[in-house]
Amino acid sequence: MTLRDPRTLHPQPPFEKQPQDPPGLDAKMKPVPADGAESWVGHGRLEGRKALITGGDSGIGRAVAIAYAREGAEVVINYLPEEEPDAESLAEIFEADGNTLHRMPGDLMDEAFARQLVKDAAEKMGGLDIMVVNAGKQVTQPDIASISSEQFDQTMKTNVYAMFWMCQEAMAIMPPGSSIIPVTSIQGYDPAPQLLDYATTKYAMRGFTIGLAKQAIEKGIRVNGVAPGPIWTALQPSGGQTQEAVTQHGAGAPIGRPGQPSELAGAFVYLASDEASYTIGEILGVTGGAPTA
Ligand code: NAD
Ligand code: MG
């Protein structure tokens, strides 16, 4: 097998400025993020599994959806109605593979919707044994003075409350052998000053993940998180960073470039699969070299 240098495997900064309105679309990014459709080869590691992935239309969630399906899992994704173009192109990838993507759009800041989503996904698939809590809101602000109560509330609702609501529902129906995987961040270890509210949620998600893991294993359910570093996704140019920061996204990571969503999918496959049966309450960093300790 040809050795490949990770530093040059994917695009490096500088990138173009490319403002988008939130929640943003993968399809509008330059370059388009690598979702693994061209590269992921399944080995049946999730055969028969039933997965719900929030934010599954784009970015990290999309790459996880592709990998999970190719590993044999049935997949439901949630996303916002504005993101239908990304969800549609993902459905086409599934169809080309001979798989069916179940789509359940809706706003996770709505408690009733977030709770019902878990029940609906389980009903659609005849059960639920993987839940990836990946939807996220990130809005850069230069100073605490510029964070509105509305922004703070929306960031908490999307990242923390929705996780709580969905995990409460999932814990009630998941059988032993299931996995819950919240997506935290390097921001949950080393908060950037311009991401104060967002980093706060990622610390909360880390604590929740480790704490819930101790409860959930008593039911045979494993809970583990993933902590990405700077990843090339629509979250960043749609308000998650300034446009100046977008041009240098990933430059500060030891590897010198942002990660692509396809480079994270393996972590999610591992954590969901029986290969990780003794891995509980762990947060797996995929950061391009920035320490998560
Ligand atoms: P992304 O924009 O592709 O995915 C985020 C998704 O969140 C969107 O696709 C959207 O469907 C969903 N979402 C946002 N608000 C929602 C709401 N109210 N209701 C329902 N869905 C909603 O970007 P991504 O970078 O792939 O983000 C996925 C996760 O990765 C997030 O939790 C993010 O915090 C985390 N993360 C990203 C980075 C990065 O550099 N991109 C780094 C660390 C962690
Ligand atoms: Mg999206």
Features:
six-stranded parallel beta sheet, binds nicotinamide-adenine-dinucleotide, SDR_fam, alpha/beta, 293 residues, Rossmann fold, 8 helices, oxidoreductase activity, acting on CH-OH group of donors, binds magnesium ion, globular, two-stranded parallel ribbon
Q: Describe it for me?
A:
- The two termini are 33 Å apart.
- This protein is of the alpha/beta class and 293 residues long.
- It has helices spanning 59-70, 84-96, 111-125, 149-173, 196-216, 236-240, 243-247, 265-272; strands at residues 50-54, 74-78, 101-103, 130-133, 179-182, 222-223, 225-228, 283-286.
- The chain is globular and about 45 Å long.
- It has a 6-stranded parallel sheet with strand order 3-2-1-4-5-6, with helices on both faces.
- The structure holds nicotinamide-adenine-dinucleotide and magnesium ion (MG).
- Magnesium ion (MG) binds next to loops.
- InterPro entries: NAD(P)-bd_dom_sf, Sc_DH/Rdtase_CS, SDR_fam.
Layout: helices, strands, pairs:
Blueprint: E1 50-54, H1 59-70, E2 74-78, H2 84-96, E3 101-103, H3 111-125, E4 130-133, H4 149-173, E5 179-182, H5 196-216, E6 222-223, E7 225-228, H6 236-240, H7 243-247, H8 265-272, E8 283-286
Parallel strand pairs: 1-2, 1-4, 2-3, 4-5, 5-6, 7-8
The chain binds nicotinamide-adenine-dinucleotide and magnesium ion.
